[in-house]
Each structure stands twice: as C-alpha cells, then as structure tokens.
Amino acid sequence: MAEQRSEPGVELSVILPTYNERDNISALVTRLHSCLQGIEWEAIFVDDDSQDGTADRVREIARADRRVRVLHRVGRRGLASACIEGMLSSSAPYLAVMDADLQHDEQLLPAMLTALKADSLDMAIGSRYVPGGSTGAWSADRAFASRFATRLSEWILKTPLQDPMSGFFMLRRDILHEALPNLSAIGFKILLDIISSTKQVLRVRELPYTFRARQAGESKLDSMVIWEYLMLLLDKSLGRYVPVRFIPFAMIGGLGVFVHMAVLWLAFQGAGFSFAVGQGIAALVAMTSNFFINNLFTYRDRRLEGWGLVKGWISFSIACSIGAISNVGIATYLFEANTAGWISSALIGIVVGAVWNYAVTSVYTWSKPKAA
Ligand SMILES: Nc1nc2c(ncn2[C@@H]2O[C@H](COP(=O)(O)OP(=O)(O)OP(=O)(O)O)[C@@H](O)[C@H]2O)c(=O)[nH]1
Ligand SMILES: [Mg+2]
C-alpha cells in the first residue's frame, strides 16, 4: 500500500479554554502564528458553549487554517476540566495551556518549549512572581487574594513554586498521563491540580512574564472561584478518604438542623400550630433550603435550572424523607435494644441518614450530565 503520510505531526498543542471570548480569537491566532514560526503547532480552543458565538468564530478561522480547531462542550462548565479535555484531544508530545483573552504573553511559548527539550524538564511555567515577572495593573485586593491563595496552596504542593496559581504553562505529555488518575478537575487551578497529582516531585522551571490587562470581553472570576478553590484543596487533601462533595453536603445538612429548629419555633411556639404540623412545616422548609444551597454550592458545576430544579427538589425531598425515617428508626432500634447509649444511638442514626441522603441525591438529583 502506498505511504499515506504526507505532513509531520504536531509537536506542540496550545490549549485555550474559552468562555465568551469571541473578540479575542482572531488576534490570538495571529499572534500564535508570528511567535511559533519553525514549530509544528496547533491551537485547540475548548469552548463551553459560549453565548457570544466564540465556537463559531473559531470554526470560521479553522476553515482557512488547519492549525486551529475547537472542542465544543455542551452542558458543562469549568476551566480545569476544559483544559484536561483539550489536552486529551491532542496527540502532541508537548502541551501548553494558556488563557484565550490575550493576558498571557504568548512570546514565552518558544522559550518554554526550548527549556523543556534542552534541559529535560517536566514542566515550564509562566510566572508572575519570579524576578522579571509581574502581575501588571492589578488592584491591591486582587494582588492580596492571589498571594493569599498561593500561601494556602503550600498545604498540598509537593513541588515548591513561586506561582502555582498560574494558568500559563507547558508540560510533557507523559506528565499529564501520570497525573490523570488523580486529577480533581475542579475550578480554575489546573496547574496546581496537575502538580499535586503526580507521584514524583516534578522538574520545573518558572519563566517570568507580565500579566497583561484584558482588552476585550469580561472576566469570569467571581466569588465562587474562592469556593471552588477550597473544594480543590479539600479534594487534594481529604479526597482519598471521603468524596469531596460529602463535606459541604454534610455541613449544609448541619445548617438544616438550625433552620428546622427556627421554623419549628416560629410555627409551634409563635403561630400556635400543633407540634406535628410544626414539625412537618419545619422539615419541608429545611429540606427546601438545603436543596437550594446544595444546588448553588455542592453541585455548582451540575446545577439544576428551570424544570430540572423542580424535579430535583422533588427527588431531593423524597430521598431526604426516607433518610430521616431511617435515621430515627436506626437510632431508636439501637437505643431500645440497649446496643448503644442515647447519644451514640442518635449520632449513628444521623451518620446513616446523611450518607443515605448524599448517596441517593448524588445519583438521582444531581446525576452526571448525559452526553449531549
Ligand atoms: N472552557 C471554559 N473556559 C473558561 C471558563 N471560565 C473561564 N474560561 C476561560 O479561561 C480563561 C481565564 O479566565 P478569565 O476570566 O480571564 O480569568 P483571569 O484571567 O484569571 O481573570 P481576569 O484577569 O479578570 O481576566 C479565559 O480564556 C476564559 O475565557 C469555563 O468555565 N470554561
Ligand atoms: Mg483573564
């Protein structure tokens, strides 16, 4: 059979996560062309179904430029998971991750590649905190938040780094595959996730660059980024022992007890309802508020909306009612059979109820999104 290969494969894939970045795409591709001359590269945009037509814009460019393509994800959001999927869709031996909003200095890419090859490093990182680098025109608040988050990350880091929060880096493919089984894929901090997921301490070099100001489009950073960051730290430290979502789920459950007591007090003592009716109202209010808080925080990446929200609330209420009945039933059985004292009986009942609620609602209320 005739030899079919004609062109060399790609050496470097640049992964560019996008959410509403349409007006930055064209300038970014032009800049990549000018700084990556002499390198076999491709740009993989990973777009989470942006409303502004980012994916269409990339496809338009890709029709005239085979170095460019888009991975269009539907029904999912998340910077870290987008980067992972982008990297996995590539066959290149070297992988770079870079923001698509022109804030990262693309001119650093050739130096990163040279450093990886010449000095047999595992990873090269664009760093704002080594000499010569800078965060540019950041507000004092943002600079403080970034420094604080960096300090917190020392808790889980194996490789000491000046800028583990950077979203701009290049690595060898085998490092990604080594980290893959342990990745959390939560939130914004994909570099931190990778570095803390490999068994070995990585050989890393940080190269300085200045973080540019955003020209077009809007920042996606919001206060939820802090929550997702905490979830990542929890998953990396306790995820081995307990599913990370169980922790906020149980904390919100604890909060539900206070809501229950407050509503019971209002209904029973204040409004004069019978104890049984007061209990019913209190349980319903507590379950409902727990459902909404979990939907907002614990299952933020799978949050239910519209009709899904109503269906989710019904399945959550049914599951938690069964959980409450088994909680009381088990505690009563243990206590009456003299197996445990009243405190231990009650605590065992609570734990069984909480695990049941978590397990059932994670499968039925917030099931994993179906393939689109
Ligand atoms: N695919 C995907 N990309 C995202 C998501 N959130 C943010 N991005 C992209 O990730 C990159 C970084 O997000 P930014 O909002 O710019 O975050 P930042 O650079 O830390 O913050 P600013 O300095 O305020 O811009 C940008 O290219 C975004 O379009 C997401 O949920 N999914
Ligand atoms: Mg940005």
Q: Short description, anyone?
A:
The chain is an alpha/beta fold. The protein has helices at residues 22-35, 54-62, 79-88, 109-118, 140-153, 173-179, 190-195, 224-238, 246-270, 275-296, 307-336, 342-364; strands at residues 12-18, 41-47, 68-72, 94-97, 123-127, 169-172, 204-208.
Q: Structural class of the secondary structure composition? A: alpha/beta
For this structure, what is the CATH homologous superfamily of the largest domain?
Spore Coat Polysaccharide Biosynthesis Protein SpsA, Chain A
Overall pLDDT metric: 90
Task: Describe the largest sheet.
Answer: 7 strands, mixed
| Principal-axis shape | elongated
Integer-rounded radius of gyration: 25 Å
Hetero groups bound? guanosine-5'-triphosphate, magnesium ion
CATH topology description of the largest domain? Spore Coat Polysaccharide Biosynthesis Protein SpsA, Chain A
State the low-pLDDT regions, or none: none
Strand residue content: 5-15%
The helix count comes to 12
Helix content: 40-55%
| H/E series | EHEHEHEHEHEHHEHHHHH
Distance between the termini: 39 Å
Count of discrete domains:
2
For the largest beta sheet, what order do the strands appear in spatially?
3-2-1-4-6-5-7
What does this protein structure show overall?
- The protein has 12 helices and 7 strands.
- The longest helix has 30 residues, at 307-336.
- The protein has 2 domains: 12-238, Spore Coat Polysaccharide Biosynthesis Protein SpsA, Chain A (Alpha-Beta Complex), CATH 3.90.550.10; 246-364.
- The model has no long low-confidence stretch (mean pLDDT 90).
- Helix 1 runs parallel beside helix 2 and helix 9 packs antiparallel against helix 10 (275-296).
- With 372 residues, the chain is an alpha/beta fold.
- The two termini are 39 Å apart.
- It is elongated.
- The structure holds guanosine-5'-triphosphate and magnesium ion.
- Guanosine-5'-triphosphate binds at residues 17-19, 21, 46-48, 77-79, 82, 99-101, 103, 214, 219-221.
